[in-house]
Amino acid sequence: MFRIKISRDLEAPNPMTFDATGQWHRGWSRYEKKMRGKSMMKNIQGVTLITIATIVITMCGVDVMLGGDPRMANREALTKDLTNLALRAQDYYHRPLSKWGGGGTFAGLTADASGFAKLSSKQINSNGTLSIAIAGSATSITIHGVGTENVNGVLVSADIKVMADSTYVSYP
To answer: Any idea what DSSP says for residue 98?
Structure first.
């Protein structure tokens, strides 16, 4: 015959429990003890993760607010301008001759003002001066940009080599 024992204090943290042998006992079961330790560990890991994420986000925000290195900003802006010209050069390459394109060659993009005019009307902007360094051939063209910021007395510069389906940026 089974006897049912009920804890008098229903809000007690360790109420009486019934185990597999039919005995009543007070306290946490082994499973409950094991899970309580794991959930505490998960809480510690979660707090640690949130703390690290907060620190990283704060550091990124401070870097953005301070503006970073102006030379790097000029270099990135110059690279963006060169990439834009590279896309125009690839467009010129793929456009047929009947539509004032290259018809499968970069040869029409010469290293003078008339060759550059086929890509853009402005050679000088707030980021620097752009020019065609190596005149277009059947397969490639190289465009050069000189920035406005000095690095140890030398202006920031970049080159982009443009092929029919790819580009390659270098910083001399």
So the answer is: G
